[in-house]
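Renewal narrative, Specific Aim 1. Our central claim is that a sequence can be written position by position from structural information alone. The example that follows is taken directly from our test logs and has not been curated for this report. It begins with the structure tokens describing the chain, in the order in which they were read.
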């Protein structure tokens, strides 16, 4: 008889939560993966046990939208502080954005990002940039190990020019052949540029002028256009930071037409409305903007009916000096979020606005499925990576930026009372955060997820009309 399997770790006493159900069970882990889930006495023996009585055991959150600023803007954040913030927030995988300096637009830019990411505490995917002038670099970026692409249809921090519709179409055609998802900052630059100029000419410098410069049609037009290009090319796309109720219609319609399109919203759009401009002044400046109350209600509806697939954070760290300026046009956009998402949204679970399984679906299962990581991630199944967050649903706290792991010590959520906190975070079986402390040696534990990613190419509808097909020079005579 061979030796019985011995687990590395058994976590007992917790209530296990999946996207479908909650049940009391112990979890056995071996070699970084889940070995078995069940009654403790039925599990293999373990070298180590961990008593999690009173806690809930969730698949770690996957935040597909963070900015960690390295290389180039490390006074705002770097990969050490950013991924420590993630672990403190119960987040076990992040997808990180390419608007760094130099941008992640070429294999050389990607190599610099990969070097910086060697410090990561948690697992990560890297987005490559899809822009006007790097369409010829996209395949090399895929070869180099990006986990998806980011396309800025509207300008934001880093001032990367938005690509023309023509460049987007060519980029979509290329990426479609490889199956990777293209994430879109869906705001149309030309509308915003004109509005902003007129508001500035009229002397507006107040926080609400930012909202006035980016009406919802800015996003609606961009979502619709991106969906048409995705439908034509077969590219998979993801709509980042959905801020308005109006975007849900083009999103829903595209889904009905069979476009492989997913969408995210962020806690700030679910929890703030236009009152935030009076309450938080320049700190609330973010792209796209926090909007009027009826949008918030619509976004919650979109979460309930499945139009919105997931919650991400757009973790966008800046310094207090960069956020606290009088002229709104000079204020950097965004604020940190990867560390506060879980307390904020678990508080919504506590308030009865979301079930715990809905929360798991929106923050873990769906992001894993959309980016080809399921069931290695986003699931608690035998064989899944042991990416686990143990949360205390009754732990109360007050959001305080001074205590953030993030280098960015400023947030519009400052002072907000929360109920529900991540207490321990494990990535592939290893404690990264324990008792609300980062485990120092975990620096460098994080790995790129591109190797486990499975994104088979979809069938493009118009493959005979792609640029490659119509410009192919045939060597054969007729
Ligand atoms: O407000 C924002 N800030 N929105 C974005 O899309 C980018 C981000 C940043 O990088 O600061
Ligand atoms: Zn962003």
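The sequence written for that structure reads:
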């Amino acid at each position: 008889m061979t030796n019985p399997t011995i687990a590395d770790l058994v976590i007992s006493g917790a209530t296990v939560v999946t996207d479908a159900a909650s049940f009391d069970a112990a979890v056995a882990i071996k070699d970084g993966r889940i070995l078995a889930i069940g009654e403790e006495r039925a599990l293999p023996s373990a070298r180590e046990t961990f008593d999690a009585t009173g806690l809930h055991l969730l698949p770690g959150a996957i935040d597909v939208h963070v900015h960690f600023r390295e290389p180039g803007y490390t006074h705002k954040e770097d990969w050490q502080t950013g991924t420590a913030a993630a672990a403190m927030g119960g987040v076990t995988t992040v997808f990180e954005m390419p608007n760094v300096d130099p941008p992640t637009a070429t294999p050389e830019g990607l190599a610099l990002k990969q070097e910086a990411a060697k410090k990561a505490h948690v697992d990560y995917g890297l987005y490559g940039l899809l822009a006007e002038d790097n369409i010829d670099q996209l395949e090399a970026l895929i070869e180099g190990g990006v986990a998806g692409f980011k396309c800025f249809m509207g300008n934001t921090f880093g001032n990367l020019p938005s690509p023309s519709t023509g460049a987007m179409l060519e980029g979509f055609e290329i990426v479609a052949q490889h199956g990777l998802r293209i994430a879109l900052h869906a705001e149309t630059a030309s509308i915003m540029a004109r509005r902003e100029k007129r508001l500035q000419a009229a002397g507006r410098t107040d926080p609400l002028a930012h909202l006035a410069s980016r009406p919802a049609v800015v996003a609606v037009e961009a979502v619709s256009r991106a969906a048409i290009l995705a439908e034509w090319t077969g590219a998979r796309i993801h709509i980042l930071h959905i801020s308005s109720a109006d975007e849900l219609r083009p999103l829903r319609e595209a889904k009905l037409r069979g476009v492989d399109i997913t969408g995210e919203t962020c806690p700030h759009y679910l929890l703030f409305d236009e009152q935030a401009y009076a309450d938080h002044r320049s700190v609330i400046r973010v792209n796209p903007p926090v909007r009027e109350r009826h949008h918030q209600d619509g976004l919650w509806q979109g979460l309930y009916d499945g139009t919105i697939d997931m919650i991400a954070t757009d973790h966008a760290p800046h310094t207090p000096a960069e956020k606290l300026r009088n002229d709104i046009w000079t204020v950097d956009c965004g604020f940190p979020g990867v560390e506060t998402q879980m307390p904020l949204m678990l508080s919504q679970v506590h308030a009865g606005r979301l079930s715990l399984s809905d929360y798991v679906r929106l923050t873990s299962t769906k992001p894993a499925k959309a980016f080809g990581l399921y069931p290695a991630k986003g699931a608690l199944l035998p064989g899944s990576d042991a990416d686990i967050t143990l949360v205390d649903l009754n732990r109360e706290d007050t959001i305080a930026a001074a205590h953030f792991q993030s280098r960015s010590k400023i947030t519009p959520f400052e002072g907000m009372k929360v109920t529900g906190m991540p207490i321990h975070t494990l990535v592939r079986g290893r404690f990264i955060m324990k008792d609300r402390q980062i485990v120092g040696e975990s620096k460098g534990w994080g790995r790129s997820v591109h190797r486990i990613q499975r994104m088979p190419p979809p069938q493009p509808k118009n493959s005979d009309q792609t640029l490659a097909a119509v410009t192919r020079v045939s060597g054969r005579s007729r």
